# Entry
Amino acid sequence: MEAGTSRLSGTGMTLAYDRRTIAEGLTVAVPDRSFTVVIGPNACGKSTLLRALSRMLKPTAGAVLLDGEDIHRRSARQVARTLGLLPQSSIAPDGITVSELVARGRYPHQGLLRQWSREDERVVEESMAATGVDDLADRAVDELSGGQRQRVWLAMALAQQTPLLLLDEPTTYLDIAHQIEILDLCARLHEEQGRTLVAVLHDLNHAARYATHLIAMRDGRVVAAGPPGEVVTAELVAEVFGLPCRVIDDPETGTPLVVPSARRRATTLAPEPA
Amino acid sequence: MTVLRTPGGLSLRFRPRALVVGAGCALLAAGLGVLAVAGGDYPMSPADVLRTLTGGGTPAEEFIIHELRLPRLVTALLVGAALALAGAVFQSLVRNPLGSPDMLGFTQGASTGALVVVVLGGSSLALSGAAVASGLATGLLVYALVARTGVHGYRLVLVGIGLNAILTGINGYLLTRAPLMDAARAVLWLTGSLDGRGWSDATPLLVVLAVLTPLVLLGCGPALRMMEMGDDTAAALGVPVRRLRLVLLGAAVLLVAFAAAAAGPVSFVALTAPHLARRLTRSPGPNLLPAMCVGATLLVGADLLGQRVFADHQLPAGAITGAVGGAYLVWLLAVERRAGRL
# Structure
């Protein structure tokens, strides 16, 4: 584990939907100013962990601490000024323009008599510039491409101006070029704005390349946590994903690169069991 | 968007177009109102109406305006506004353009109580009370059925449609049990009519609207706008999603129940008014205030049409809104399907 402080952490959490328990005794810490990426196979509890950390799901045991205080003792609005979340899917209201949507990120800072301050205006412009959607400001969101739309949602989350930002699979549904574009953008926001980012990602190699801190999960527990260089090993990938592989150095960045082992021809051609 | 800022750091943001739509509807409603109050078996000139309203009329004019026509007009305005507000809230909550209280069983629920009173025999006060009580009971039942998983859009729609079918059956059964005269009266009530409405019909709804309008518009309006983007996004922006849904569902059910108690289950106003408002303002969002203005105008217009379209025969306002609203629904289905939203 990295040394250092952590504004956001969960201790001894039991996470469950109705009676279905996803995780028990789960403990995680998000190092401050890190780009933390959570990885793991489908249904390992990654997104559930993110929901718990963002106050959407109340642990049935244990607690999520935000700045040392149980996150459920604060109001949703108070939390929303410190911690933002970009959910997996959001709905753009019919006919809304880019700048209108990004402006909605200011909601937790607004009130009945403080509906649109100069500060709001400035932050929305900056957020659109940071994500490169400023020249789309007056376009309708439903006309945009998937990659552009995801940048707009990211701009909205940025406009919330939270030191902590959680991203649930921000690259899903995007093609490879747009995936890299979004991740580069996240990395830049992390470096330039000093925000703490926590993202759930599916692609191990993306995770290894962009994360400064990696949390690997399986069956609702944390299998390993630390810098990608230490965490991503062939043994860990086998343990977490059940995938035989080799780990080499990424020729571009020197970070770990996971190369799945080739199976025998016969196995590849045989129909996969369901 | 237009922004007004004061040196003290206060700021207000609004869409001029929404204001124009609201003001335009209010003017139109006022004009229709003057026509409604002036016309009828005892025609008066608008000048007579104004003179009577300011206290200078003859006793006969005083009676006709203050006891007959004005309460009817006020009831129409209030019922239209209440149904439209409830419809706009429901449609935003379930994120479905068809998610109006007519479709989700709430108006049928209010009717059931009223029909029970018709069958058992009771005063019109009892009828109104029963309509409110059974409307609220329907709301509680729906909430009990969907509460476990949270009041999610699709679940609420499906449960509501199911309940609507059951209640329609019950209401049909109750009608067959009613004595013939009472059944005829019940059918008129079920159509939704403003005929013979007095201040005793308007006042309870006025009180409910006076309390709930600021609560819904100012207290919940901005948060409801965030809810359009999905529960998770709204929650991430600091909206207390569960509590907001509960409050809004309760408010909408109250509005529908009291509106039904005042004028019967007038159909399609709750469905069409928010749509029309959105088309007129051309802005995303629940458009709560414009929807209320449109709803009030619609119902006053429908009632006026019902009184005047046939010289010797009055149509109940609900028949007009049903005919016009039904046509609008067909058109909407075609348009939404083409746009790929249904």
